[in-house]
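Forwarding these from the shared drive since the link keeps breaking.
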Amino acid sequence: MFKVIRWMLVSRSRLLAELLDSRWPQEFLVKLTLTEPEKVSEHLLMEQTLVVIDLATVDLQKAYQLQRQIERLPSSIRTVFIQYPRKIDARFLINPSVSAGVFYIDDSLEFISHGLGDIMNGRYHIPGELLKSSGDDEGDDDTDSLTIREREVLQALLSGSTNQDIARQLFVSESTIKTHLYRAFRKIGVSSRGQAIAWAQTHLHEVQV
């Protein structure tokens, strides 16, 4: 169980930030810091215990990088994702050791507040359908854990292809390619495109696609 004292809201929406800043500090008796994703490092304090990431205004790659940054901190900071998309597979973001809550894009503010109350009491609020499969990739950075499609996408990175190029090659949307990349990043333990290319140069030649 962790005690919530300071919260951080990461969002590009000033309207949402102002709405939650007028509600959450009074409702939960916490100090709420509002920041944009590029400025998180400036405001991320060891005594903060909850970072709320607005996925409607923070792209998945940036959210993934923030999650990885928090995972490496020697503290009990937890993450909560709000406005989580229903039509995009973003389960690669969820790490049960760090993620405390996930709220869908159509969840009401009242529902989110109720879930945050559970989190304050030391419980987790992650939909079962997400939690069930989110742990499948954890701790497994072996090439055997990569799907055929993820290997294809990593292989394409080695040729210098952009996401748009890869999407055309594989006849899928660019957002699908991003999802494959982010899931592959978590499996092989990297957090950037450059690191993924370096990993692929060492390991991917061993894998026949």
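-- next protein --
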Amino acid sequence: MKKTLSATALALALAFGSGTAAHATMDYPAPDQSVVVSDARVEAGGTVTVSATGLNAGERTTITVAKNQSAQNFKGDVNITSANAEGEISEEVTFNQNGRHWITVTGDETGEVGTASVVVTGNGNAAGNGPKKLEVDRSGATSETDPAALWAMGGAGLLLVGGAAGAVALKRRNS
């Protein structure tokens, strides 16, 4: 019985250990298009440069700017431009309202989409807006759990359950 439990524990450890190592070293391809802004934070009335790559040469491209909205509820600004011979664009966008603004670049031919965000602070030239709302940037507040840690916790849990089941079986056999 002890040999069976040891073999089971060893097999589970090898299964979860090898899967973790393979998963941890796997490479994932980067998306073809990337959207980059020159500044992630700007004062109201300020301008940032929006750059994108991965488009077709000369492709008509739509740049949309939405304040605190998803693409489904878009109520922002639209700018149409064309990609250069290398499939890149670079356009300046001016922001007049406070808040987080989402910039989406869509190629009309390829359908490629990329998104970046800009936080606009200050009150710009607007007078009589009342008290300022405190802007909080939570973009770094998300956390990710390493898949290897999840596999290790799952493997440890299975080993614990297997050990408990073996102990119960051994106790019943000896009774």
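The chain is about 30% helix and 30% strand. Strands lie at 34-37, 41-43, 47-53, 60-67, 77-82, 89-94, 99-107, 113-121.

- D.
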